[in-house]
Amino acid sequence: MTHDLDHTHDAGLRSWVPGADDHPDFPIQNLPLGIVSPDGGVPRAGVAIGRHILDLPALLATNLLSGEAAAAVEAVGETLNPLLALGAGPRRALRRDLSALLREGQAERRTIEPLLHEAAACRLHLPAAIGDYTDFYVGIHHAENIGRQFRPDNPLLPNYKHVPIGYHGRASSIRPSGAPVRRPSGQTKGPDADTIHFGPSQRLDYELELGVWVGPGNALGEPIAIGEAEAHIAGYCLLNDWSARDIQSWEYQPLGPFLSKNFVTTISPWIVTPEALLPFRIPQPPRPQGDPKPLAYLTDEADQRGGAFDLRLDVFLLTPGLREAGLPPHRVAVSNTRSMYWTAAQMLAHHASGGCNLRPGDLLGTGTISGPERDACGSLIEATLGGREPLQLASGEERRFLEDGDEVLLQAHGVREGFASIGFGECRGVIVGASG
Ligand SMILES: O=C(O)/C=C/C(=O)CC(=O)CC(=O)O
Ligand SMILES: [Ca+2]
Ligand SMILES: [Mg+2]
């Protein structure tokens, strides 16, 4: 990696903000950036610290931020795009200053305390205006599992281990955590049916993914070298690529997913920075024997050494039956980003390799991240083997696919001995009935 662990990562670091040290997602070692409306006010930049959000424009007005950090906040309006565009320098300066200002023993505590909002009283928005969204397919276990269902004779197509496969998604329907997910209607054809039908999807599913936020980006026609790719990544979020499997299986050939995946995509609203995730970087897991070496434009020594992540991923399902019985959400899966066949840098370098320009605030999805086991599946179509083996819930309910009123919650956490654990915050959505 291009930078190192520093004092902001120390496990012993404590914050004066009440509750921050014990927060499962947002201790002082994380400091993710977002756009919030405190108490219905105008959207502005904020940083999550425990159960609170620090108002960044208000902090700027105190003159407590140093030059480069102040420039980062000055750039921001109602979206973080201008800050993402500045790249790593100002973002790191801001992290250093925030870490110092929120640290236990900070003499300016009395000045900063009034600038904190209770997160529960804030509305969280999309952190950036997303110009373009692309979804990859780097979860190799998912690709094998779902490939087996869509193409039993040919699950993993021959290009998979050479090309980071992706499809262009839809930016307009990306929503922050908590927004309702309306069941889409669409065209379907049962496997043995001879008629084609239009109506509400009967095989509604979720997909457990990470989102990758693009930073500075490239000019049209000027590819990003793999060794430079990290410098163009501004941060990460959780991403749920809601998918209507019945619509998908009928529409997807030969051009790929279209309406089956563009009705809504949910993301967690905090941008977790590459700096915060530094302790959880790992070498790229070695490719299985016999797999081809990636081409040179996808190969970088530093990326191989530390371009992958060790992040625990969880999927929970809360149904109306569980809710009414006062039972906890059902844990459907525990997975890990180690199952990514390609790194974020490889995704980004590949995307730009033909000259396509990536712009600040563009979003890349990794694709569904499933582990090899049944209880590590990042989608229901995998977990229930296409609906053949439904989930059995403590409420007595069964689930093959999502029903109206079901809520899906995704989580991601970095957990490593000797370091503070950090999380991504919430990525949740409740299914509401189809319109009309
Ligand atoms: O293999 C297929 O035809 C379809 C795959 C998907 O539905 C997955 C997709 O959106 C990419 C991913 O999430 O991995
Ligand atoms: Ca997907
Ligand atoms: Mg989608």
UniProtKB/TrEMBL annotation:
SUPFAM superfamilies: FAH, Fumarylacetoacetate hydrolase, FAH, N-terminal domain. Ca(2+) binds at residues 135, 207, 209, 241. It comes from the Bacteria. Residues 29-127 form the Fumarylacetoacetase N-terminal domain. It comes from Methylorubrum thiocyanatum. Pfam families: FAA_hydrolase, FAA_hydrolase_N. The active site is at residue 142. Residues 141-429 form the Fumarylacetoacetase-like C-terminal domain. Residues 173-197 are annotated as: Disordered. This is fumarylacetoacetase. GO terms for molecular function: fumarylacetoacetase activity; metal ion binding. Pathway: Amino-acid degradation; L-phenylalanine degradation; acetoacetate and fumarate from L-phenylalanine: step 6/6. Substrate binds at residues 137, 151, 248, 252, 368. GO terms for biological process: homogentisate catabolic process; L-phenylalanine catabolic process; L-tyrosine catabolic process. Keywords: Calcium, Hydrolase, Magnesium, Metal-binding, Phenylalanine catabolism, Tyrosine catabolism. Its EC number is 3.7.1.2. Mg(2+) binds at residues 241, 261, 265. Its cofactor is Mg(2+); Ca(2+). The keyword DNA-binding does not apply.
